[in-house]
Design goal:
Number of strands: 15
GO molecular function, one term: GTP binding
Largest sheet: 7 strands, mixed
Bound molecules: guanosine-5'-triphosphate, potassium ion, magnesium ion
Organism: Helianthus annuus
Keywords: GTP-binding, Hydrolase, Nucleotide-binding
Pfam family, one: TGS
Radius of gyration: 26 Å
Protein name: Putative P-loop containing nucleoside triphosphate hydrolases superfamily protein
Number of helices: 12
Order of helices and strands: HEHEEHEHEEEHEHEHEHEEHHEEEHH
CATH topology of the largest domain: Rossmann fold
CATH superfamily of the largest domain: P-loop containing nucleotide triphosphate hydrolases
Length: 386
């Protein structure tokens, strides 16, 4: 492909080659029959409310960082490939527990199986976000090389899924449509790519000016879209101009483990990227339990009232009449909501069950002048749908 000149005439040829390569990569990554997958030997049980993987070249300071953030000792030394397996630690932050994974360094060619690249990448795929640790004093090309390695195995960092609707059909040929003007692909090229995948009946609708690579991602369908923070470590050994430039890049943060610089900002950024939603439960007539939040995530399972109930107990949803919500997601305080209501971080929720006789709660509630009591009254007068 590198040897093919890029012009209108070779466009179709290149597109087809891209699809062929994507197909072969997918085959290559399928775990051999009888094995549990590419992450063999690296299995670490998931723990806590989220999982963060440390990915980087050897000796950039991944283990040093894990030790600083979690207190779990992971061996650090001045030689490369000090770490040979996956070492988990726990970060306690904002009342939640986040599992941080230290991993062996990876190198160019990791996606093709160099070093322990395959296992490392498999573990990073199982996490919620990636911290790509980089050495601020080393080549800036490293970030690009690692991104390519991760992309080669289907990881997409800091990208949104392409806005392309694609559905295979049994008959009817291919229907091709777009709501925007397309500058990277045309109908013929899309047909050829679909052909490469032996797809002859399908619906294809472009909602953005997507590329061939985007289309292939959508057809392959197994891509994982993850947030990634680029962590430039060892800023103690580079000049202030470099630090300033690196710090201004998107999704990036500069730190020094040695000088304990900016670690708190790194944690805050990580927390933000994870998008965790803490919901405090409030038993009727009592103060909310701020010590033990139910933790939801829109990437993992969702943040609706229904998701909240399912986390507490699977059969709970059936018993819920409505819930009372205090906090950022509530239009008024409290708002009575149904199962589809989407909760925000630090909301307080009280569940009102179907069978619960409201008069029963009243007695216990007399001293309570505001809130749930009166809402219950209002709801009785004008029962909610659902
Ligand atoms: N100057 C400087 N050195 C650091 C910093 N953080 C870590 N180091 C040093 O960098 C070297 C490598 O650190 P490790 O934590 O072993 O790096 P790693 O990424 O885990 O390395 P591998 O496990 O071999 O992939 C050690 O000598 C550390 O002391 C830092 O902030 N500044
Ligand atoms: K090392
Ligand atoms: Mg290490």
């Amino acid at each position: 492909m590198a040897r093919t000149q890029k012009n209108k005439a070779t466009e179709y040829h290149l597109g087809q080659l891209k699809a062929k390569i994507a197909k072969l990569r997918t085959q290559l990554l399928e775990p051999p029959k009888g094995s549990s997958g590419a992450g063999e030997g690296f299995e670490v049980t998931k723990y806590g409310h989220g999982r963060v993987a440390l990915i980087g070249f050897p000796s950039v300071g991944k283990s040093t960082l894990l030790t600083m953030l979690t207190g779990t000792q992971s061996e650090a030394a001045a030689y490369e490939f000090t770490t040979l397996t996956c070492i988990p630690g726990i970060i306690h932050y904002n009342g939640t527990k986040i599992q941080l994974l230290d991993l062996p360094g990876i190198i160019e060619g990791a996606s093709e199986g160099k070093g322990r690249g395959r296992q490392v990448i498999a573990v990073s795929k199982s996490s919620d976000i990636v911290l790509m640790v980089l050495d601020a004093s080393k080549s800036e090309g490293h970030r690009q090389i690692l991104t390519k390695e991760l992309e080669a195995v289907g990881l997409r960092l800091n990208k949104k899924p392409p806005q392309i609707y694609f559905k295979k059909k049994k008959t009817g040929g291919i229907s091709f449509n777009s709501t925007v003007q397309l500058t990277h692909v045309d109908e013929k090229l899309c047909y050829q790519i679909l052909h490469e995948y032996k797809i002859h009946n399908a619906e294809l609708l472009f909602r953005e000016d997507a590329t061939v690579d985007d289309l292939i991602d959508v057809i392959e369908g197994n891509r994982k879209y993850m947030k990634c923070i680029y962590v430039y470590n060892k800023i103690d050994v580079v000049g202030i101009d470099d630090v300033d430039r690196l710090a201004r890049q998107p999704n990036s943060i500069v730190i020094s483990c040695n000088l304990k610089l900016n670690l708190d900002r790194l944690l805050a950024k990580m927390w933000e990227a994870m998008g965790l939603v803490r919901v405090y439960t409030k038993p009727q007539g009592q103060q909310p339990d701020f010590g033990d939040p139910v933790v939801l995530s829109s990437d993992r399972g969702g943040c609706s009232v229904e998701d909240f109930c399912n986390q507490i107990h699977r059969s709970l949803v059936k018993e819920v009449k409505y819930v009372l919500v205090w906090g950022a997601s509530a239009r008024h305080s409290p708002q009575h909501c149904g199962l589809s209501h989407v909760l925000h971080d630090e909301d307080v929720v009280q569940i009102v069950k179907k069978k619960e006789k409201e008069s029963e709660g009243r007695g216990r509630f007399k001293s309570h002048t505001t809130g749930p009591d009166r809402i219950a009254d209002r709801v009785k007068k004008a029962p909610l749908k659902n």
